[in-house]
Amino acid sequence: MTDNIKTFGVIGAGQMGNGIAQVAATSGLNVIMNDISEAFVEKGLANITKLLTRGVDKGRMSAEEKDAVLGRIRTSVNIGDMAEADFVVEAATENETLKFKIFKDLDEACAAPVILASNTSSIPIGRIAAQTSRPDKVIGMHFMNPVPVMRLVEVIRGLATEEETFKTTWDLAGKFGKTPAEANDYPGFIANRILLPMINEAVYCLYHGVGKAEDIDTVMKLGMNHPMGPLALADLIGLDTCLAIMETLYNGFKDSKYRPCPLLRKYVEAGWLGRKTGRGFYEYQ
Ligand code: CAA
Questions:
Q1: pTM attached to this predicted model
Q2: What are the residue boundaries of the structural domains of the chain, listed by start?
């Protein structure tokens, strides 16, 4: 199923996009990593180089393998370059208008049989697919952050996604060394339908003064054996992304249990987006 995929396109060179590009290139595919500016793709490539160098230092790969992986990654600031790709994953900012535009452009640029996947955390796949002339070839391929470390890929079927598209995407996740899990197309799918209300509730605990950030995280780390506390995890994901997902859940189900915590919104409005801006629930160097 995946034998015909030689060149893999990634739209977005941010924390998800560059992670996806890294795992795809490590699996042996040629990768085109695209973003809107040279500065963004350079930053993405620098992060991949840093992580691969760490892999060499830790004895996980040789310096030659690292060079070969980097040699397979080409950067691009022109979405038309995706004409060369055999499979494309979009990992742009979690914004519906932006993603719709990208899918329209990809639909124009890519050959008819090419699968167009979205790494969206919560926007319905059917809505994205409807922007294209190939809804049967549109699917959700949802990687977890940090992509090189996390083993899961959630594969989401849209209403029109055809079986072959699903199988190819499923197999590709396996080729990347990930374990796929299947979800249907409802807001938040499985991962974020469960994870984000927990994070939102942790923000409510902070908002209501039930506990300080450190104590909320300690409770979940030591009491529930989570690898990191929900507020530290929110900082890792990005508070803007967390808010966008809660809005999608709230708007999608019209159920008040998904209302985003006002404190989360306040942080986002202040530009305190977590690790990427140096400040969220915690401060970062
Ligand atoms: N990028 C790449 N690698 C990273 C990394 C990053 N941002 N952060 C940590 N790592 C690597 C480290 O380099 C280290 O690898 P080596 O030492 O073998 O080189 C390894 O991960 C372990 O890191 P640490 O020892 O520093 O710390 P840790 O043991 O606490 O692990 C963690 C860090 C993997 C992030 C772990 O805390 C964890 O699993 N946290 C939960 C992550 C999670 O829940 N992710 C899902 C988010 S939700 C999502 O992504 C979906 C969405 O749509 C919002």
A1: 0.95
A2: 7-183, 193-276
Instruction: Give me the amino acid identity at 144.
Output: M
Note the CATH architecture for domain 7-183: 3-Layer(aba) Sandwich (3.40)
Tokens in use for 216? 């909320």
- Report the CATH number of the 193-276 domain: 1.10.1040.10
Q: What is the mean pLDDT of residues 187-209?
A: 97
How far apart, in Å, are the Cα atoms of 24 and each of 7, 42, 172, 175, 224?
Answer: 9, 18, 9, 9, 33
* Distance between Cα 4 and ligand 1 center (Å): 32
> Is pLDDT of 2 > 90?
no
* Mean pLDDT across 224-230: 98
Task: Give the chain's length.
Answer: 285
For the cut 90, the answer to whether the pLDDT of residue 1 exceeds it is no
**Quick check: CB of 172 below 6 Å from ligand 1?**
no
Q: Does residue 254 have a pLDDT over 80?
A: yes
Ligand 1 atom index nearest CA of 55: 19
Q: What average pLDDT does range 14-30 have in this prediction?
A: 97
Q: Is the CB of 53 under 6 A from ligand 1?
A: no
Any ligand 1 atom below 6 A from CB of 148: yes
Q: Which residues contact 268 (CB under 8 A, 6 or more apart)?
A: 239, 240, 243
Say which amino acid occupies 188: G
The CA dihedral of 45, 47, 51, 52, to the nearest 10 degrees, is 10
Q: What is the residue with the minimal CA distance to atom 51 of ligand 1?
A: 144
What are the pLDDT digits (tens) for 55-90?
Answer: 999 999 999 999 999 999 999 999 999 999 999 999
